[in-house]
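Most newcomers find our protein records easier to grasp once they have seen one. Nothing more is needed to start thinking about how sequence determines fold. Here is such a record, shown just as it appears in the course material:
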Amino acid sequence: MSLINFYLKQLNEESVTTRRMLERVPTEKLDWTPHVKSMDIRRLATHIAELPTWITMAITTDGLDFESNPYEAKFIDSNEELMALFEESLADGRSQLLAENEERLNYPWILRSGDTILSESTKSGIIRMALSQIIHHRAQLGVYLRLLDIPIPGSYGPSADEATFKQDEEAVGV
């Protein structure tokens, strides 16, 4: 399997769980944060929803300079806007996972802030990092939802909130 096809398969598989997690973000709690050092749920969920666009950025650019291109987070005001942003970002990320871009995956990609190099990688490495970031931040979101007493979906099997997990526990006497 080519790397492009591998990344597309992983993006498609992870998008199912990511969508299920983002769908649970409550509009009325967008400003909620579990700790003073934590992002509020709006910022975290928006970041997760935007991450697939890093795939396109990795393939179509040679890097990102925060000094000349500062990050400006999109501001969502409802779960509907969050889901629309995710679907738009997902389509954007998929748009460059094409066979003709396979050879570009080994090209260098640099993250910097002006003259300070923050990270040097390959385009493939940045795509892998973006996919890992989706998974990492999705797990953080799961903790936020748990603290808000919102049932969370399973990622790679049932969660403790899903009936099949509860039935399995009862069957083994937990």
